[in-house]
């Protein structure tokens, strides 16, 4: 019989080296693809905000964006005589701004927009 040099220390060392190699390779491949797409998305967002400042949602949290969606906010009202411009919850734009705001959620709002919480202005 041969006397082979087996030890737990060598076995555990080989396991850690092999595991580290696989984990490092997976992280490298995963991270490599996300950087390319995120830069393209940010360039598209910047371009769209330059063309349309009322579509600028940069700096708005995901929760606030979901709140806008849950309230059914749309850029163009489909209901005659019911738009953000004649809603009691609408905050008109300041002199240096092009878009209004809403009391219910953060971010710019189109004057022609609409949501399910539309309320008539009372005098």
What is shown here, in short?
The chain is mainly α. The chain folds into 2 domains: 1-51; 53-123, High-Potential Iron-Sulfur Protein, Chain A, CATH 4.10.490.10. It is 43% helix and 3% strand.
CATH fold title of the largest domain: High-Potential Iron-Sulfur Protein, Chain A
| Amount of helix | 40-55%
- CATH superfamily (homologous) name of the largest domain: High potential iron-sulphur protein
Report the top-level CATH class of the largest domain: Few Secondary Structures
Our Rg estimate from Cα atoms comes to 27 Å
Mean pLDDT over the full residue set = 80
Ends apart, CA distance between termini = 103 Å
**Strand arrangement in the largest pleated sheet:** 1-2
Unreliable residue stretches: 34-38, 45-49
- Tell me what the CATH architecture of the largest domain is: Irregular
Which key terms come to mind for this protein?
about 120 residues, mainly alpha, High-Potential Iron-Sulfur Protein, Chain A, 2 domains, two-stranded antiparallel ribbon, about 45% helix
Write the SSE topology.
Elements: H1 8-51, H2 62-70, E1 90-91, E2 101-102
Antiparallel strand pairs: 1-2
Can you characterise this structure?
The chain is mainly alpha-helical. The protein folds into two domains: 1-51; 53-123, High-Potential Iron-Sulfur Protein, Chain A (Irregular). Helices cover 43% and strands 3% of the residues. The chain has helices at residues 8-51, 62-70; strands spanning 90-91, 101-102. A two-stranded antiparallel sheet has the order 1-2. The longest helix has 44 residues, at 8-51. The N and C termini lie far apart (103 Å).
